[in-house]
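Cross-posting from the modeling subforum.

Setting up a comparison between two proteins and wanted a second pair of eyes on the formatting. Protein 1 (sequence, then structure tokens):
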Amino acid sequence: MILGIDFGASTTDAVLFRGKKVLKRASSDRKLGSTRALEHFLKRKGLASKEIKQVALTGGKSALFKGKVLDLKPVHVNEINAIGFGGAFLAGKKRCLVVSMGTGTCIVCFDREKASHVAGTSLGGGTIVGLSKRLVGEDNPKSLETLASKGSTKGINLTVEEIVGKGIGIIPGKASASYFAKSGKASRADLALAVQNMVAETNAVIAGLAAKSSKQKSLVFVGKAASYPAVRAAIKRVLGYYGFAATFPKRGEFATAAGAACFSVKGEPKSLNKK
């Protein structure tokens, strides 16, 4: 078995593999800054099996763990490789653009066993949670999902049609032209939806342009921010303007941890990516 762990800015994610199968997965929103804290988390979540042959670490804080983890010397995997291999593995792709929407957003081109950094934005889950806390007094992701499902952006965002009277170029009139440009009254639900739309639509535009420049046809969205229903709907809508479709693989929030495990095994990634 192989254990992949991603130390993100907001959470720590772990995925346990046996061959090509994900056995278990778990997340922690606590700061696991020591080996002792990490091992306690893994044992508590049932991810500390004696059958584990390799531990792969990725993410910004993985450099803190220089010693052994679960009595094994860990393999440190570059985050770009982890994102590329993880997104491609979960989506079953040989070639794709992986858009990892974590605290911020990182866009990686994956092309037959090679991952390369294409672009990124500072808009992600951290933006959704932090800005929503300031605007609506809520930072719980599930509560924000519920709020957004009841909201509307008609009283908050200006549309293209409201500015020029119709669509322009490939952009339809109903598309957002300016976020938060209207100063009228808005409910908490409206504001929650507007924040999620802003993050989703901006990243969708950047991803569409990145896909064209890297000649990729498949766009795979992973990360916790990409699991919000309103975010997914906005991404699909905006990518449609550019003639692209989005793939949201199952367990996408664990893509980077899964990718660390995939990349760490010599020769294994090729057999994991069948399509």
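Protein 2 (same layout):
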Amino acid sequence: MFQSQPVRNYTEIFNQRGELYHRAMMAQPNARRAEFERIVQLSDLQSGQLIADMPSGGGYLRAFIPDDVRLVAVETASPFLQQNDLPRNQKLAEEQGGAPEWNRDFSSDSQLLCSDLSQIPLPDKTFDRVLSLAGAHHLPDLDKFCREVRRLLKPGGTFVLADVLENSRAAQYLNQWVDAHNSMGHQGIFLNQFTPEAVENCGFEINFAAPKAYHWEFDSEAEMISYCRSLFGLDLADDAQILEGLQTVLGVEKYGACCRMNWELMFISATKTASN
């Protein structure tokens, strides 16, 4: 079981269960292909662009973007940093015995940075695109994060945010079912109908904002159960309970030996405005 004290932010959560999350993603790297492809599609990536993925987890986005697009994965949780196979742009402070020095040469295809997501020590107007997939609901201040994203974007740059929508089945599953079957609990702060306006108020023009339903796909029911156990940290549930939760809250479809579970995220694409 995980430590049961209250855990509130992304770094604390994934410092405890990031290794299990990463194990799930490595075992089934294509299970969530639909959501990775959707966020990439909305980003309208162009050859030679420099993009940021934050929070990046284990650098999973790299597998879904073109080889000629340069990626900087920005992450805060040590298990992801330790297991991420992207080249390190810096060593962790504790490894250096002091504050890390940043190498701002982004000439390589992929690099990994360790940083607080509200204060990233990079210059203004660094990136052409910033993508954030399914991690923002654990950030304590989405407004502060969006303003930091705006600072880092070049003029006319695009920010694509994808996360769970309040009152959706995914929200119910995470904040009720997972909350009851993960000893750390789960209380995400999800996107809602007012989020596009809030992003706009941070200095963006909204291009697109809508929920998208799709599936997570698996070769077998057993793989789906194992994946969800690790990804969501379901240490208080057995296999039968996990399957029942997926079936009753989200919905599961079987086709032959394969199966897929329903999922949904809100996708927001926004352009940095010229003012300020």
